[in-house]
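Re: that chain you flagged

S.,

Sorry for the slow reply, it's been a week of failed gels. I finally had a moment to sit down with the sequence you sent. For the record, here it is as I used it:
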Amino acid sequence: MKILITGARSGIGYAAALELLKRRHFVYLSVESNEHLHALEKKKS
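Prediction finished late last night. Pasting the structure tokens below so you have them in one place:
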């Protein structure tokens, strides 16, 4: 499944992104900087 999440930096967007990534979904994320993407990438493992 392909999913788009805007505001994935914090809150429910962050929690949803993390859970969907753990479940191996293809997720498009909208965040303010690449640093936030790297943080999500580390936590999904």
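What I noticed first: The chain has two helices and two strands.

Talk soon,
D.
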